[in-house]
Automatic annotation (TrEMBL):
This is histidine kinase. Keywords: ATP-binding, Cell membrane, Kinase, Membrane, Nucleotide-binding, Phosphoprotein, Transferase, Transmembrane, Transmembrane helix, Two-component regulatory system. It comes from Coprococcus aceti. Pfam families: HATPase_c, HisKA. Its EC number is 2.7.13.3.
Length: 405
C-alpha cells in the first residue's frame, strides 16, 4: 500500500511540474509572437513604406509594372511574417519537448534509484519483523544504495545462521539430557533388583547381605555421577560431555560389572576373561557402554541366555567397517543374546538418536541406548559393531588396548 502511495505521489508531482512547464512555455510563446510583431513593425516598417511609395508613383505615372511591384511587396511581407512566426514556434516547441523529457527522465531516475530501493527495504524489513528469513533482498549495483542493500541482506543471513546454531544447541542440549536420563535407568534397575532381593530375604548370609548393600551404594554413586553430568551439561553441547583418556584394566572392571548387574540375567562367560589394558578409555564410560548393551539384551531378548566372549586381536583382523584409532592391539568384547535380532531394514539407522526399530515393540525406551554406545566408543577411539545371526544378535565392542603379559 505504501509503495503505491509513493508511486502515486511521484506521478502527481510529475504532472504538476509538466503543467508548470507548459504554462511557462505558453507564456514564452505568447511573448515571442508579440516580440516578432514588434520587430516587424519597428525594423521593416520604413522599408515597406518606401516600397509602397514606389508603387504609388508607378500608379501615378501609369506604369504597367505597378501591379507586379505591389504583388511582390505583399508576398515579401507575408513570407517574412510566416517565416519569422514558424521559426519562433518551432524553437519553442523543441525546447519544450526537451525540457519535458529531461523532467520525466529526472523523475524516473529519482524513483528507480532513490525511492524504490527505500520501498524495497521497507517491505524487506516488514518480512524480517514478521519472522520471514527466507526472502532474499536483491542486490542491485546500479542504485546508490547497493552496498547498504548488500549489508542489509548479509544481516539476514547472519540472523538465519545464528538461529540455526541456536536450534542446534537446543537439540544437542536435549540430547545430552535424554542421554544422561537414559543412563540412569541401568543403575536404578540394579538398585531395584538388589533391594527386592533384600526384601525377599535372599541375603541368607552376612557376606551376601554386605555385597548387596555394597552394590546398592555403588549404583547410587553412579546415579549421583550421572545426575551431576546432567546438571553440568544441561546447557552445553554433547561434545562437552567429559570422557577421560586413561588406561583401564578390563578384566577386573568387567568382572565387577557382571557381578553388579548379573542378578536376574542369565549371563555366561565363554572361557576366561582376557586380561588387557584398554588405552584412551574412561572406566566410567566403559561401564556405561557395557551396561547399555547388557540392558538392551535383557530387554529385547528377554529370558534368553547372554553369552560373553573376550579376546585380543591384531588391527589387521578388524572388519572393514570397523575403525580403532592408534591401536597396536585391539580388545574385542562380544556380547550375544538369543533373541530375534534387529530387522535388516533398521540396521542403517540403529545408531541414530531417538531411533527405535520394529523389534522394540511395546518395550519402553527413548531410542538412545545404541546412540550412546556408539558416541562413547567413538570418543574413546574405539568402535561398535552389531551383527545379526540366525540364533540372535551379537554386539561387538572394539577397544584400543595392550595385552598384559
Amino acid at each position: 500500500m505504501k509503495r503505491h502511495s509513493v508511486r502515486n505521489n511521484i506521478i502527481k508531482m510529475l504532472i504538476v511540474f509538466m503543467c508548470a512547464i507548459t504554462i511557462v512555455f505558453g507564456w514564452l510563446f505568447y511573448r515571442e509572437k508579440q516580440d516578432e510583431t514588434r520587430r516587424i513593425k519597428d525594423d521593416e516598417y520604413g522599408q515597406y513604406i518606401v516600397e509602397l511609395n514606389e508603387v504609388k508613383q508607378l500608379y501615378d505615372s501609369g506604369s504597367t509594372d505597378a501591379d507586379e511591384k505591389l504583388d511582390a511587396v505583399m508576398n515579401e511581407l507575408r513570407e517574412q511574417k510566416l517565416d519569422t512566426g514558424k521559426s519562433g514556434l518551432r524553437n519553442i516547441l523543441i525546447i519544450y519537448i526537451v525540457v519535458l523529457c529531461v523532467v520525466i527522465v529526472l523523475f524516473l531516475y529519482i524513483y528507480v534509484c532513490v525511492l524504490r530501493p527505500f520501498d524495497e527495504l521497507e517491505d524487506y524489513a516488514s518480512h524480517l519483523a514478521a519472522g520471514d528469513m527466507d526472502t532474499k533482498l536483491k542486490y542491485r549495483r546500479v542504485n546508490m544504495f547497493g552496498s547498504f542493500t548488500w549489508a542489509f541482506d548479509h544481516m539476514r543471513t547472519e540472523i538465519v545462521h545464528a538461529r540455526r546454531r541456536e536450534q542446534e544447541a537446543i537439540e544437542n542440549n536435549k540430547t545430552v539430557i535424554a542421554t544422561l536420563s537414559h543412563d540412569i535407568k541401568t543403575p536404578i534397575a540394579s538398585i531395584r533388583g538388589y533391594a527386592e532381593a533384600l526384601v525377599m530375604n535372599m541375603d541368607a548370609t552376612q557376606e551376601r547381605r554386605e555385597r548387596y548393600a555394597s552394590v546398592i551404594m555403588k549404583k547410587c554413586d553412579e546415579v549421583t555421577s550421572i545426575t551431576n553430568d546432567m546438571f553440568i551439561h544441561s546447557l552445553h553441547d554433547l561434545d562437552r560431555l567429559v570422557v577421560k583418556s586413561d588406561e583401564v584394566e578390563i578384566k577386573p572392571l568387567l568382572e565387577q560389572i557382571l557381578s553388579d548387574i548379573g542378578l536376574g540375567m542369565d549371563i555366561v562367560v565363554n572361557g576366561d576373561i582376557t586380561e588387557a589394558v584398554l588405552e584412551h578409555s574412561d572406566s566410567g564410560r566403559v561401564v556405561q557402554v557395557i551396561e547399555n548393551i547388557l540392558s538392551n539384551a535383557a530387554k529385547y531378548a528377554r529370558d534368553t541366555e547372554i553369552s560373553i566372549v573376550t579376546e585380543c586381536i591384531s588391527p589387521e583382523k578388524l572388519p572393514r567397517n570397523v575403525h580403532v584409532s592408534g591401536a597396536d592391539m585391539v580388545y574385542r568384547l562380544s556380547i550375544k543374546d538369543h533373541g530375534t535380532g534387529i530387522p535388516d531394514k533398521d540396521m542403517p539407522f540403529i545408531y541414530e538418536k531417538f531411533y527405535r526399530g520394529e523389534n522394540s515393540g511395546d518395550e519402553p525406551g527413548a531410542g538412545l541406548g545404541l546412540f550412546i554406545v556408539h558416541y562413547l566408543m567413538d570418543r574413546m577411539g574405539g568402535d561398535v559393531e552389531l551383527v545379526n545371526h540366525a540364533d540372535g544378535l551379537e554386539a561387538v565392542l572394539y577397544f584400543a588396548a595392550r595385552k598384559v603379559c
